[in-house]
Amino acid sequence: MIFTVLDIQILSYLRLYAEGVTRSFLGQELDTPRTTLYDHLIKLEDVDLIKRYSFNHGHGRPWTIWCLND
């Protein structure tokens, strides 16, 4: 698998924020559209480098949190 600069940046942020981050947060930090990030996150999830889980913050839809795989 070939990793792009964006893939490496995503992995770096996930290493920095071990508790995980949302796609919106990554989009703001990396100045990248959320749809582009989603494609890269799914690619990284497919090779078992990262995982996602839902976090219910009390109201509205739960947040999807992305983090490094154990």
What is the CATH C-level name? Mainly Alpha
Uncertain parts: none
Number of strands: 2
Number of domains: 1
User: If you compute it from the alpha carbons, what radius of gyration comes out, rounded to the nearest whole angstrom?
Assistant: 12 Å
Envelope shape: globular
Mean pLDDT: 96
CATH homologous superfamily grouping: Winged helix-like DNA-binding domain superfamily/Winged helix DNA-binding domain
CATH architecture field: Orthogonal Bundle
Strand neighbour order, sheet with most strands: 1-2
Q: What is the fold named in CATH at topology level?
A: Arc Repressor Mutant, subunit A
How large is the share of residues in beta strands? 15-25%
Cα-to-Cα separation, first versus last residue: 20 Å
Q: Tell me the series of helices and strands, N- to C-terminal.
A: HHHEE
Q: Layout of helices and strands, plus pairs?
A:
Layout: H1 5-16, H2 23-30, H3 34-46, E1 50-55, E2 63-68
Antiparallel strand pairs: 1-2
Can you tell me about this structure?
This protein has a two-stranded antiparallel sheet. The protein has helices spanning about 5-15, 25-30, 35-45; strands spanning about 50-55, 65-70. It has a single domain (about 5-70), classed as Arc Repressor Mutant, subunit A (Orthogonal Bundle), CATH 1.10.10. The chain is about 45% helix and about 15% strand. With about 70 residues, the chain is an alpha+beta fold. It has three helices and two strands. It is globular, with a radius of gyration of 12 Å.
